[in-house]
């Protein structure tokens, strides 16, 4: 407690210890097999190979043999490229594809060149370690160029100049610039310059730290254990690096369409009557709704896979009834299993030895919502299968989506998590919690998603997680945890979501309205405007805060909130098409301007505007009482979505936006598919094509399928590409066999005579 007062800065508390690091140098011996270079160093061993012509893996283990196995995250590490090796007295020269890797024998300094240009360079020493077995990897960075990535982090979009560590942590205290460790760990950065981008993925699950601060021209990555295990991606721009990174760690699969609609949540709707009441209000006010969440109070004593039958006496009927009204229900499922021998999940887990244990074989117990609890060892595939199968309880009720929370794992104790000497059993490979901590949420998401996949047969599951590691996008959407109803948190959600997208995680959102603290009508309106364009759109709030459902503040606020929920559905055809693109390319839905305009330095630090796909720019109001803001429109011509006014890009504009207006701009040349008004995504929409005129031609596309099954894998989709040239004839090309396509009811050319 004292730590939250000035006691925290007691003079004796300054840590002046100088850390001693030992450099790893000189190549003592090496072996080249035509694809993989291995060798010994002044201390330890190294290994280098390319998994494609733009991704190099470098491993250095100062303490012994390198471990070359690909991690669960690096699922795309399957190929080894061939090359040639030459040497002279000073260096080894590896030629692989167009890359020349130069390794200085004495210092073990390494650089990669292409056509004489240096693409990547380590510093000296490249690798070091200390007596606590921490490892360090140092590379050169440009002091003035932005560095993005690292997933879910507080602060603005550019991380160059800061020191950021990764340790999955449940942080209820208000998130701010100094709240460095949040729920997710994605040890990946993207260093961008106008002519090139370089991705560094440090695939080490121990606590890591990216120091971009101590030296202006150096990035040092430290891990509190393990080996230096890096994938270096040599891209020409941001998009190429994300493509390479998601080739390695996986792409966001196409979610079921209902998961892209508006979701309403609260901690908690505590009875079936309250749930029904919420849904009725949506109907009465004619607000579109796809899903209602059940937070922890639906359970019997917070035991997952149960219902509180006093509060939810007809839960089976409730879920069926809502399904008939096309409303999905997503329950929360936490990892903590109540220690209670009369609770079958605990009993069975104990009998089968499925909980995380100490070396002695004793089960680890920690306190969470249900009291003393045990935690499944999700690292083990048998446990994953068991866990997956337990979800039959929900799928039998008609549930198709699960919300995983508290999976850092969060434990109510000093360390906030499990003891670090707990041992996880990853199918025979035993790792300590110190090493596996950051993976716990990823493995839980895998178990949930794959379990649901099996149970739903041909249906696409929806899973939402708080904790995760690199690659989490393969299994789950991510929401950014316990934010607050603070304007600063609305503002921060933009760079946070953009950096998640730059780190491969495309399906993301922040709690709209803010989770804790009390929201205000104005904040709720502005946040709903932003939420409508986020990949994931859920309004959620904590138990002791005021209610923040759309109608909570009277009719005027309701009208505005409703307008933006409706707008979400209007843009659904465009959004769903983007999710299709994401599944193919790995590129995020919400993009920073730099992704589409990598040569324009004006975009490098832009944290308060987003691009949704390549053509739509959203510049929300992020402060109370404001009705104007400066908007940077990159090169080209843009149209205001509301007024249709034309704007020249490459400069700043002062835009007026009263409380009911979210500034939205569409790039000239876009053919934008919009949908007709619906109550939710299960209703079929008609399409309206808005064609934003450009003398250079216009283009757009529309992806359609049944919205919920995997039939699209077998060609049951329709991908329409629309093109229009100077003759103003609309040409449509269509791929796929899906026949129940929406009808195009209206086509409008905008900006033709202006
Ligand atoms: C955690 C979650 C929050 C949830 C609450 C109760 O704080 O982050 O979203 O409502 O637990 O389950």
Structural class: alpha+beta
Radius of gyration: 26 Å
Please, how many domains? 2
Give a list of the ligands.
alpha-D-glucopyranose
The CATH C-level class name of the largest domain: Alpha Beta
| Fold-level CATH name of the largest domain | TIM Barrel
Mean pLDDT: 97
CATH superfamily of the largest domain: Glycosidases
Q: Which bin fits the share of residues in helices?
A: 10-25%
Tell me about the largest β-sheet.
Answer: 10 strands, antiparallel
Shape category: globular
Record field, number of beta strands: 47
CATH architecture of the largest domain: Alpha-Beta Barrel
Strand content: 25-35%
Give me the number of helical elements: 13
Distance between termini? 64 Å
Low-confidence blocks of residues: none
Explain this structure to me?
With 754 residues, this protein is an alpha+beta fold. The protein has two domains: 22-249, Sandwich (Immunoglobulin-like), CATH 2.60.40; 257-571, Glycosidases (TIM Barrel). It is 19% helix and 30% strand. It has 13 helices and 47 strands. Strands 1, 6, 7, 8, 9, 10, 11, 13, 17 and 18 form a ten-stranded antiparallel beta sheet that branches. A hairpin with a 3-residue loop joins strand 3 and strand 4 (45-52). The longest helix is centred in the middle third of the chain and has 17 residues, at 440-456. The chain is globular and about 75 Å long. The structure holds alpha-D-glucopyranose (GLC). Alpha-D-glucopyranose (GLC) binds at residues 267, 295-296, 332, 405, 466, 481-482, 515, 540. The site of alpha-D-glucopyranose has 10 residues, from loops.
